[in-house]
Amino acid sequence: MVFHRTPHPRTRALGPSGRPDTPSGRPDRPWAAVGMLAAATFAVVTTEMLPVGLLTSLGAGLDVSAGTAGLAVTLPGLVAAVAAPLLPVAVRGTDRRTVLCALLLLLAAANLLTALAPAFPVVLAARLLVGMCMGGVWAVAAGLGARLLPGPSAGRATALVFSGIAVASVLGVPAGTFLGAAAGWRTAFAAMTGCALLVAAGLAVVLPPLPAEGAVRLGTFPRLLGATRVRWLLVTIALLVTGHFAAYTYVRPVLERTPGTGPGLVGTLLLGYGLAGVAGNFAGGALAARRPRRALRLLAAVLGAVVLLLAPAGGSALASAALLAAWGLAYGGVSVSGQRALTVAAPEAPEAASALFAGVFNAAIALGALAGGRLADGPGPTAALLAGGVLAGLAALTPGRDEQGAATSP
Q1: Gap between the Cα atoms of 328 and 67, Å rounded
Q2: Would you kindly state where each structural domain of the chain is located, as residue ranges?
Q3: Scanning 216, 385, 394, 401, which has its CA 20 to 30 A from the CA of 203?
Q4: Compositional bias of type Basic residues: which residue ranges (predicted)?
Q5: Neighbours of 175 (CB within 10 A)
Q6: Any idea what DSSP says for residue 94?
Q7: How many CA atoms lie within 13 A of 353 on its CB side?
C-alpha cells in the first residue's frame, strides 16, 4: 500500500524560479511588483526625454546644431509608435518577465552606447534602440498592473505603473540635466545605464513568472479596430495627446511673455505643473476605476478649457500659475484613464489593446510637437495653445459611454 503525504496547507510548491508558485502569476508581494513596473516606465521615459535638457551640450560635444541634435528626441518617439504594436507579435508566447528584463538590458546598452558615442550617427543608432524599448515596455507593462492586482485594486495598480512617467518628468529629467551640467552629458547617459541595469535586476527578482495570456498576432489588431468602442477611444486619445503636446511643447515662450516672470519663475511654474501631474496620475486612476471612458472625456474637457484660457490669462502670473497647475492635474490622469478604458473595452485582448494605446500615444506625441512647431514658427506660440485647446475639446466630444466600468458593445 502506498501512502501519499498531504502537504501542509501553508506549504506551496516551488516554481522554476525557486519561489513559491502563485495562482495566475500573482506574486507574494504584488505592490512591490507593480512598483518595479513603475520603475521600468520611469527608466524608459527619463531616457527618452533626457536629451531635451542636454541638447546644447550634446550638440556641441558632437559638432552638430541644436536642431540636428533634436533628432535624438524625435526618433525614439517615431520608432516607439511602430514598435509598440509589433513587439508583442514578435515575442508571442515569451514570458513577460523575461521580455521586460531583456528590454531593460537593451535600454542599458543603448544608454552606454550613447555615453561612448564618437559621432552623432552612433547616437541616433542608440536612440533607435531606445525607441524599441519605449514601445515594448509601454505595450507589455501597461496592462500588467491589473493582472498582478485584479479586481478593485486594478485601477490603483495601473496608476502606480504610469506614475513612473510623471516622476520621470518631475525628477528624472531634471536630475539628469543637473548631472549633465555638472559632469558632462556623457556622464548623465552613463548614469542611466546603471539605472536601467538596476531596474532589470529588480524586475527579475520581484516579478513572478508571467506567461503570455494568448499570443498577440497581427490579425488581432484589425479585429480590435473593428469594435466601434475601441476605435473611438483611440480617436479620443489621439486628439487629446496631439492637442496637449502641440500646446505644451511651446508653452514656455507664452509664459516668458507674462509680465513679472523670468527664467527662474518659469522653471518654478513648470515644476508645479509636473508635481500636479504626479497627483493627477493617481487621481485619474481613482476616477477611472469605475467609469474610465467618462473620466477620459472629463479630463479632455478640463484640459481643453485650461489651455484655451491660458492665452488670455497671459497678463497675470498668478492666473497662469493656477491654470498651469490645473493643466498638469488633468493631463496627469490621461495615461492611466486611457489605458484603463481600453482594457475595459477589449477584455479579451488586453495586451494587444495596450500595444495599440502605446502606438497611438507615441505617434500623437510626435504629431503634436510637429504641428505645434509649425504654428509656433508661423502665427506664434499662442496659436499653438489655441490649436491644442481645440483638439482637446474635440476629444471631449467623441461618442461612447461606459456603465460601472464596462464599455458598451460596438
Answers
A1: 27
A2: 25-206, 220-407
A3: 216
A4: 1-11
A5: 16
A6: S
A7: 26
Residue with cell 516579478: 207
Helical H segments across 168-257, by residue range: 173-183, 185-206, 220-225, 228-248, 251-256
Residue 172: the pLDDT is 86
CATH fold match for the domains 25-206 and 220-407: yes
Q: Are 320 and 227 in contact (CB under 8 A)?
A: no
Coil/strand/helix, residue 326 = helix
Cα separation, 346 vs 311, whole angstroms: 38
Closest CA to 123 of 53, 76, 183, 184: 76
Report the DSSP beta bridge partners of residue 403: 406
Q: How far apart are CA 70 and CA 278, in angstroms?
A: 26
Write the pLDDT tens digit of every residue in 330-375.
998 898 889 888 888 888 887 788 888 888 988 888 888 778 878 8
Question: Could you tell me if 140 and 20 are in contact, meaning their C-beta atoms sit under 8 angstroms apart?
Answer: no
Backbone torsions φ then ψ of 242, nearest 5 degrees? -60, -45
Does the predicted TM-score (pTM) go above 0.85? no
Q: Which CATH architecture has domain 25-206?
A: Up-down Bundle (1.20)
| Bridge partners, 20 (sequence order) | 14
Q: Are the C-beta atoms of 401 and 290 separated by less than 8 Å?
A: no
Please state the CATH superfamily assignment of the domain spanning residues 220-407 in this structure: MFS general substrate transporter like domains (1.20.1250.20)
Residue for grid cell 513559491: 20
299 closest CA partner among 46, 381, 291, 165:
291
Give the other-Cβ count within 10 Å of 377's Cβ.
11
Torsion of CA 141, 142, 148, 149, to 10 degrees: 160
Cα 164 to Cα 39: distance, rounded to the nearest angstrom: 6
Residues 306/308/309/315 CA torsion (nearest 10 deg): 130
